[in-house]
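User: My instructor asked us to take a sequence, write out its structure as tokens, and then describe one feature of it. I'm not sure where to start. Here is the sequence I was given:
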Amino acid sequence: MCQQRRRVGGNAASASEVAHKPMRIVLWATFAKPELTARLGAVLGEGLAVVADAAELDAAIGEAEALLCPDFLYGAEVAETMRTRAKRLRWLQLLTQGFENAQAHGVPAGVIVTNAGEAYSPAVAMHAVALMLAVQRRFPPMLANQLKGEWNRTMGLAMTSPAGGTVAILGFGSIGQEIARLVRAFGARVVALTRSAKPHALADESLPIAQLRQVLPRADAIVLALPLGGSTRHLIGAREFALCRRTAVLVNISRGGIVDTAALVEALQSGAIAGAGLDVTDPEPLPAGHALWAAPNLLISPHLAGAAGKAGFDRLAEVAARNVRRFLAGEPLAHVVAL
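Assistant: Let's start with the prediction itself. The structure tokens for your sequence are:
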């Protein structure tokens, strides 16, 4: 078992050290804590250490071979603690889909980083499609009229539907694929835009992301489901909105920085696009008085697309537990991310 475990990461202790020190995995969670503790405890027993804050993490991490925590807790101080105190650490399991903080602050050499994989995919995909449908069916102005007690049917001419339309999905990981599955059920045609352009059974077309501007003029909905990085920051800006159909809608359930916010405000106000649904914004949280709040046919949710109640927490705990079992067995870990 000792030799098997040493294959997983490059920061392993010697065989004699491993033989005399029990496996220790640290969990630091601010959500799904009961579900994670129960599922991981069943696998690890006394090898699981649950901490509540950075001070407890500092005390526990010295003997840990793995840390499970959300990316938003992995700040500069935690990263420094990992480098100076986590001498046995070989694996960082993030309990979030995103890994921007781990990427920004780095991890000790030899430490493998994994994210939550498909844990949030059903909820996020459903939320993305809900935003798309709400904007296509003009729910934002409809709700505004309801609050005014105004029976106004004029928006009917502007309503659209996924049926017979084209949905461009930027990023085709587990979330993008689930979005595709859902919109195809409404009769939409799916164009997947990725770096590899690898064909997929859920995509009618698979194209390189470099062809985005060729796809936009024929897209009825553009859904962003790709990570934020140097090549994707402001991927959607004024030039891209100018290429869109005036009936097109934009949905962003990924990261706010992928869209140029000022260009989005202008596109909505000018009618360059018909509307947008956002679960993420730039800046985030969106401050009071920002122009986006008043933009026409816009629906904003406060970065909670992944919320799915206890069922979602159970799903996350199972994804984490499966990876822990792989780690214990010395098997390749799932959902490895490159920082």
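For the description part of your assignment, you could build on this observation: DSSP finds 13 helices and twelve strands in the chain. Try explaining in your own words what that tells you about the chain.
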